[in-house]
Amino acid sequence: MNITYLIKKDIEHTLIDIGYKNFCKPIIVSSKKTKLGHYQVNNLIKIANILKLDVYELAKKIILHIKKKNIYKKITFSQPGFINIFFCNHWISDQLETIFTSSRLGINRVVSKNIIIDYSSPNIAKEMHVGHLRSTIIGDVTVRALNFLGHNVIRANHIGDWGTQFGMLIAYLEKINVLKNYNLSLKELESYYCKAKKKYDIDKKFAEKSRKYVVKLQNGDQYCYSIWKKLVSITMLENYKIYNRLNVTLKKIHTIGESFYNTMLPDLITDLKNKKIAVQKNGVTIVFLKEFKNRLGQAMGVVIQKQDTGFLYSTIEIACLKYRYEKLCADRIIYYTDSRQSQHLIQAWTIAKKANYIPSHLLLEHHIFGMMLSKNKRPFKTRDGNNIKLKALLDEAIDRAINLIKKKKPHLPKKKLISLAEIIGISAVKYSDLSKNRNTNYVFNWDEMLSFEGNTAPYIQYAYTRISSIIKKSIIPIHQLKEKIILKKEIEITLAIKILEFEEIILLISQKGTPHILCKYLYQLATNFSHFYENCSILFSKKINTYKSRLKLSILTAKTLKKGLNILGIKIVKKM
Ligand code: ARG
């Protein structure tokens, strides 16, 4: 049930019915304390100002009119300018009933759109590091939420598998003679990559050879192509292991890397030149964008082809946009990429629009994210200043979880210990990241994320196992829970209203790609349940109707927690 939408529409209709036209959209939020209202209108002062009315007078009129609807139990005004809305218990129960009997928690499918999520996108010949964590897991939550709502989601892992670096790598691997029988690990490959780069900068001959190999590769030379393919496969094999451990839905079929667009680039350049969007200057092909200014205040130039005819990251980006619109019929594209790439993306979007490759109504969004910081608020790095590898981070999470579980359950058999620790450890890392607003930096803190208190994965996972065990102990099977939920105590109403809020949370995630809202919601839901459990007996209720009703509320809470965790890509455990 999308309650905010329902109230918003009611307020808007009421305002129109009582004779007003030009008002701003009412802002509706769920109230912190259900005693004071289930939901509230938050911007009444602003609406009154626009309509040049006294807030109290306006509130009175709205309340008088809207009360005619029988879903509201009570509507009140509170200073300095809020309208508080209480729903009738029978209406709440009816909504809960719909959720209870639905496999989709009563959430309707929306009109399906083709939405491309460009996320994770690591580079070849390098191990994934903590910098890739946010893009990978936040992007995956948006994928899951949009999928659940019924959209056609296209995952695009735009891996960095093309460019000059492959020339140096091939030249270097050839030079050190490892190409005959190369069972290289990704770690080794990355170290060769670093060495190749150093050599490229100081050794002219080597640099020349590298460039020759790039051109050969771009032209489809068999020798270079087969080595390149192997390098991609070594890297991606490791990355899929990481995705798997992270419970992220990216698979091989979702990889559409930079190389995929290679054959489209020559025509693209010709077309941009024909359309007079790109020009030739000092041997390079360049697009001048007056929308962007360089340091001298002149139109900024975006190079799309170099002197040696090599293409650039931007060229590929434009081709990619064209492909995504023409071939994949995208209605919306969301990029989960470092905020430093904002300008690059906007420039590519601008060029693609100028060339009519994409229409102006295509929704393009760059969902940026902040950095992970260490305790001293500096970028989260190893002691020697290098990026922390994602694999090492996940290994440490599991080690820490093993120690934690061992303290609580010293006799747990080793196999069970490890499999539990894998879930607890990795969920903790994921959840601690997802629960922070993606727009800001956050401090990475092991102790906090593995705590059983607060807005953490262990807290929510534990809450879920506890509710499940209550449900399991019940003597009444689910199919016998036919009667509607009876809401008497304030605590029951609070929990019920929270359950109803789930749909609007999922809709918000689908619009904004902000998983922290869902984490906060699940935390509140789990806390509300815990208050309910402490104050209302469930399995010890004397009356059978109360027993059934409370059991039903527990089942609904469990269902919602489970779906919420599923959308976050966090696994549940049977026992903790
Ligand atoms: N491979 C790039 C990097 O590691 C990210 C690619 C993001 N996606 C895109 N369409 N540019 O920085």
What's the short story on this structure?
The protein is of the alpha/beta class and 576 residues long. It has helices at 3-17, 44-50, 55-66, 89-100, 133-149, 164-175, 186-202, 204-218, 222-245, 265-274, 313-326, 342-354, 390-408, 414-434, 446-449, 457-473, 490-500, 502-512, 515-535, 544-568; strands spanning 28-30, 39-41, 72-78, 82-87, 114-118, 152-156, 278-281, 284-293, 299-305, 332-335, 363-366, 372-373, 442-443.
Quickly count the helices.
20
Poorly predicted runs: none
Helix/strand-derived category reads alpha/beta
Classify the helix fraction into a percent range: 40-55%
CATH superfamily of one domain: Isoleucyl-tRNA Synthetase, Domain 1
> Hetero groups bound?
arginine
CATH topology of one domain: Isoleucyl-tRNA Synthetase, Domain 1
Shape annotation: globular
**Main beta sheet strand tally, sense and closure:** 4 strands, antiparallel
Organism: Buchnera aphidicola str. Ua
Protein name: Arginine--tRNA ligase
GO molecular function: arginine-tRNA ligase activity; ATP binding
Subunit structure: Monomer.
